[in-house]
TrEMBL record:
Core subunit of the mitochondrial membrane respiratory chain NADH dehydrogenase (Complex I) which catalyzes electron transfer from NADH through the respiratory chain, using ubiquinone as an electron acceptor. Essential for the catalytic activity and assembly of complex I. It catalyses: a ubiquinone + NADH + 5 H(+)(in) = a ubiquinol + NAD(+) + 4 H(+)(out). The keyword S-adenosyl-L-methionine does not apply. It comes from Dolabella auricularia (Shoulderblade sea cat). The chain crosses the membrane at residues 51-70, 77-95, 101-123, 135-152, 167-185, 205-224, 236-257, 264-283, 289-312, 332-350, 370-394, 415-434. This is NADH-ubiquinone oxidoreductase chain 4.
Length: 435
């Protein structure tokens, strides 16, 4: 309850940037206290927390703080801070609901501050089209889910997630697709991903960080909640969806190799990682859920950091075109070092959290189908390829004429990159992910 007080109490204050920062810092520190192994807490009939939601609440708080830290001071405004704070509030509520209808409401409400960030602080006129794509894809896929949830709650006589799982019902193929579809668009799975690169390219820095770091994880958490509420388990439909997720992840990784826009490349890499998450969750095995949780945490921190690095490099070169950013190593060696660190983390080099997640999900996929395991192996290989392409294209070679000389990194930029490493240190706390 302390966390809710910190988040929502600030809505009623006319605050300075110091108080906004203090609110985010305190919320991040309080959320650390939620990280206990195998814990579950029912606060009341509407709120509950478990090991998955607590970890995602922590990630929400820390990434909203980092979005605030990474934003240049002159771009900050009262409305901007309110959007970030409202987004954090909706995310915390989404991850903390035990009422399935309220979970759906806050799940959809998180789109509103995100849309405001894209339209209000985007860079190009195409941001209107990007916002429209995002709303049409996500809301259009979610409305059929609302009808299923209302019908299921009426049938069960309760809206509580923990009580709905006691109902025994065999879902037909159509309902299974509807239930999973809303969250697969949010993740997104390849073929429902067209809104994501557009939204990332047009969004401001904070919008890209929170979209990649947290909002995509709402889709993964939604699949986790549906599996718990409906006791669906692996069936023929879920196996087909898992196969499409893995194959789509491989295609997204291949798309990364032909991108020239650095933000589009990082966006497509998110689609590849979320293919692993959706496969692990839909197969609904203990190792699969554990691998999805680990991958969500690791990807949330690493993709957010890559968007930060893309923005910091943009301020040096004034372009997002990868060939025009080359030679960064000659002029900004510290920035190149950070590119190397987070590209290694993104490609799942040992001993990073991404590696642990990919190893766990590969064992689960191997048990179901050898061909899917082969696709998984190709995805891992080409994931390393596009990360090496990203690092070498930006940092090696003779420096581009587009690069402007200046200071290496500002203090807030260094602080942001260092703090992005904090969630990734959970690789040394492996018991946190034992289900």
């Amino acid at each position: 309850m302390t966390l809710f007080s910190l988040v929502f109490g600030s809505f009623f204050l006319y605050f300075s940037w110091g108080s906004v920062g203090s609110c985010f810092v305190l919320a991040s520190l309080v959320s650390l206290g939620l990280l206990h192994q195998n814990f579950s807490s029912n606060l009341n009939m509407y709120f509950s927390l478990n090991y998955v939601s607590a970890l995602l609440v922590f990630l929400s708080c820390i990434l909203c703080l980092l979005a605030l830290v990474s934003t240049p001071y002159e771009k900050k405004a009262y409305t901007y801070s309110m959007c970030l704070l409202a987004l954090l509030g909706f995310l915390v509520l989404s991850f903390s609901m035990s009422n399935i209808i309220l979970f759906y409401i806050f799940f959809e409400a998180s789109l509103i501050p995100t849309l405001m960030l894209i339209i209000g602080w985007g860079y190009q006129p195409e941001r209107l089209q990007a916002g429209s794509y995002m709303m049409l894809y996500t809301v259009g896929a979610s409305l059929p889910l609302l009808l299923v949830l209302i019908w299921w709650c009426e049938k069960g006589g309760t809206m509580n997630i923990l009580l709905l799982k006691n109902l025994s019902f065999v879902f037909p193929i159509f309902l299974t697709v509807v239930i999973y579809g809303a969250f697969l668009v949010k993740l997104p799975m390849y073929s429902t991903h067209l809104w994501l690169p557009k939204a990332h390219v047009e969004a401001p820095l904070a919008g890209s960080m929170i979209l990649a770091g947290i909002l995509l994880k709402l889709g993964g958490y939604g699949i986790f909640v549906m599996n718990n509420s409906f006791s669906m388990g692996p069936n023929s439909v879920s196996l087909v969806i898992a196969a499409l997720s893995m194959w789509g992840g491989f295609l997204a990784v291949m798309m990364c190799l032909r991108q020239v826009d650095v933000k589009a490349l990082v966006a497509y890499s998110s689609v590849g990682h979320m293919g692993i998450v959706s496969a692990g969750l839909i197969l609904d095995q203990t190792w699969g859920v554990t691998s999805a949780l680990i991958t969500m945490l690791a990807h949330g921190a690493s993709s957010s950091a890559l968007f930060c690095l893309a923005y910091f490099s943009y301020t040096k070169s004034h372009t997002r075109n990868i060939p025009y950013m080359k030679g960064m190593l000659q002029m900004y060696p510290i920035l190149s070092l950070w590119w190397f660190i987070f590209c290694c983390i993104n490609m799942a080099a040992p001993p990073t959290l991404n590696l642990v997640g990919e190893l766990l999900v590969s064992s689960v996929v191997w048990n179901y189908n050898y061909l899917l395991a082969a696709v998984m192996g190709l995805m891992v290989f080409f994931s390393a390829s596009y990360n090496m392409y990203l690092y070498s294209s930006i940092n090696h070679g003779f420096h581009s004429n587009y690069l402007s000389s200046g200071s290496e990194l500002k203090s807030f930029e260094k602080l942001s990159l260092v703090l992005h490493l904090m969630p990734l240190l959970f690789v040394f706390k492996g018991t946190l992910f034992i289900l």
